[in-house]
């Protein structure tokens, strides 16, 4: 996990004070919390850390109202867990709910498309423009050769590929989505069988690709995925209930200096 250094917090901007009820959340607390909220910028990490502390304080105060033990830091997490178990109402989805959801989201509950793939990787660093240009030109040349002599793929892979698969003639075997580098994975989903007539780019360089066979995914019957469907609906219900509950606590106790947003449930879901 990438941690955000305290020193990265902008020093020339003083954020507004944050308060939950009568409790103040100061910048030192936020700075300590930031290491647990990796983000693309210090500002975003700071916001996420502040929001997490506000959510925890709202739950702590509500737990205290109900007589749960919150005077000891070691007991707070247990009190929050008991609080949520008491107060979150989570309706159990019926079988008809599950069947309707399955019918409306069949692509979500389908076998993945699988592809038998071979490739030649012409390696080039992302910031090496000259190597990228040379790799693309070489890829075009190899594709022209393979168009006339497809039986040479194994030979050309062994000679030119920078991927360990070169020892297998460039064979990657049967792939499902997510098994290869993201850029190549996205492109493969839309390619027909055969030699692709342009090199495909990824962070590692250029790929000359042949899809030997595609097996399209098919929807799975409800009975075989009923547990997954039910779990999905329960998770969605939990997120909705938690979001509404936290926004209600925000209105009840009062929060100054920051507003909880529609994604506030992610603080606890994480």
What is the secondary structure topology, with strand pairs?
Elements: E1 18-20, E2 23-25, H1 27-33, H2 42-65, H3 73-87, H4 95-104, E3 114-123, H5 129-148, H6 153-160, E4 171-175, H7 182-188, E5 194-195, E6 200-202, E7 205-215, H8 222-253, E8 255-256, H9 266-269
Antiparallel strand pairs: 1-2, 1-8, 3-4, 3-7, 5-7, 6-7
GO molecular function: peptidyl-prolyl cis-trans isomerase activity
Catalytic activity: [protein]-peptidylproline (omega=180) = [protein]-peptidylproline (omega=0)
Enzyme class: isomerase
How would you describe this protein?
The protein has 270 residues and is an alpha+beta fold. The chain is 47% helix and 14% strand. The protein contains nine helices and eight strands. Strands 3, 4, 5, 6 and 7 form a five-stranded antiparallel sheet that branches. The chain has a three-stranded antiparallel sheet with strand order 2-1-8. The longest helix has 32 residues, at 222-253. The radius of gyration is 27 Å and the shape is elongated. Keywords: Isomerase, Rotamase. This is peptidylprolyl isomerase.
Structural class: alpha+beta
- Could you give the order of the helices and strands? EEHHHHEHHEHEEEHEH
Indicate the mean pLDDT. Answer: 90
- State the end-to-end CA separation: 13 Å
- Strand content is 5-15%
Count of separate DSSP helical elements: 9
Q: Low-confidence segments, ≥5 residues, pLDDT <50?
A: 1-11
The coarse overall form would be elongated
Helix content: 40-55%
Global Rg? 27 Å
Instruction: Please indicate the count of domains.
Output: 2
Main sheet makeup: 5 strands, antiparallel
DSSP strand tally: 8
Keywords: Isomerase, Rotamase
Pfam family, one: Rotamase
Domain PpiC: 112-213
EC number: 5.2.1.8
